[in-house]
Amino acid sequence: MNSLLRRSIFPIYNNSLKITCRSFAEVPVKEKIDKIVKNNKVVVFMKGVPEAPRCGFSNAVVQIMRMHAVPYDSHDVLSDESIRQGIKDYSNWPTIPQVFINGEFVGGCDIMLQMHQSGELIEELKKVGIKSALLTAEESKKKEESK
Amino acid sequence: MSIILRPGIFNIHRSMSSMAGVVESTIRSKLLSTLDAKHLDVINESYMHNVPKGAETHFKVVVVSDKFDGLPLIKRHRLVNDILKEELQTGVHALSIVAKTPQQWESSDKVIESSPNCKGGFGK
């Protein structure tokens, strides 16, 4: 009886163990990132935190976001090795920082800088219902002039 | 790493290494041949970072190519990243990209700003 019980329980135990192991290893990084990027309209993966970026490229992105007064979620890849590699795999992009708008990968520092300079960023933000502070400033300036 | 597998190019790299590093030369030749670049700058910005002298970890490339015609920025960058995939996996840590079509390059001021200062996060 005892051995019968053991035999029938063991495979189940074994299986559940495997499932648990896997859910702690491969699957969740992608799922975790998926959740993160969809959790907020604008998400930035960077080195350090917005108050103290630890890389010049990450800092540049933070400054751009600040200029446009964009509310965003930030994730420090230096504090989580699985995210650091995971985010590169997720977006098939080899470098940090990475910016997501509406769950979609938009680019790194160079692209953000160019989108900022060309005015494209204002348009992209508008699409997701975020009004850039630069646009607000421009509008009030125009209003002043037409008075 | 890759040069060991390709002894044919090895000598070229060796002879150029007094002016440019091995990785820099590889980046240059790959971009030139694959993208048929009309203008190409490969700038080693590693000295701006916390790495040993002569390191080849941080680069900026300015590529002007007809192949970027009609491609949005992100696809141009993906193209360059893809060409330099091997380098990015084996030591190149930062790659800043300026990718323009010949028309865009001609009408631009052709001034390339250097990358932002390091904040010390490298290797951490």
TrEMBL record, chain A:
- NCBIfam families, alphabetized: Grx4 family monothiol glutaredoxin
| Organism of derivation | Chrysodeixis includens
Identify the GO cellular component terms for this protein.
Answer: mitochondrial matrix
Q: Does the keyword Metal-binding apply?
A: yes
Q: Which UniProt keywords apply?
A: 2Fe-2S, Iron, Iron-sulfur, Metal-binding, Redox-active center
Supply the SUPFAM superfamilies for this chain.
Thioredoxin-like
Write down the Pfam families for this protein, in alphabetical order. Glutaredoxin
| Residues of the Glutaredoxin domain | 42-106
Superkingdom field = Eukaryota
| Protein name (database record) | Glutaredoxin-related protein 5, mitochondrial
Gene Ontology MF term list: 2 iron, 2 sulfur cluster binding; metal ion binding
**What InterPro entries does its record include?**
Glutaredoxin, GRX_PICOT-like, Monothiol_GRX-rel, Thioredoxin-like_sf
Q: Does the keyword Iron apply?
A: yes
Automatic annotation (TrEMBL), chain B:
* Family note: Belongs to the BolA/IbaG family.
Please report the name of this protein according to its UniProt entry: BolA protein
InterPro entries xref list: BolA (IPR002634), BolA-like_sf (IPR036065), BolA/IbaG_stress_morph_reg (IPR050961)
Pfam families in the record, alphabetically? BolA
Q: One GO term of the cellular component aspect?
A: mitochondrion
Top-rank taxon: Eukaryota
Q: What is the lineage of its organism?
A: Eukaryota, Metazoa, Ecdysozoa, Arthropoda, Hexapoda
Matching PANTHER family: BOLA TRANSCRIPTION REGULATOR, BOLA-LIKE PROTEIN 1
Recorded hits in SUPFAM superfamilies, A to Z, give: BolA-like
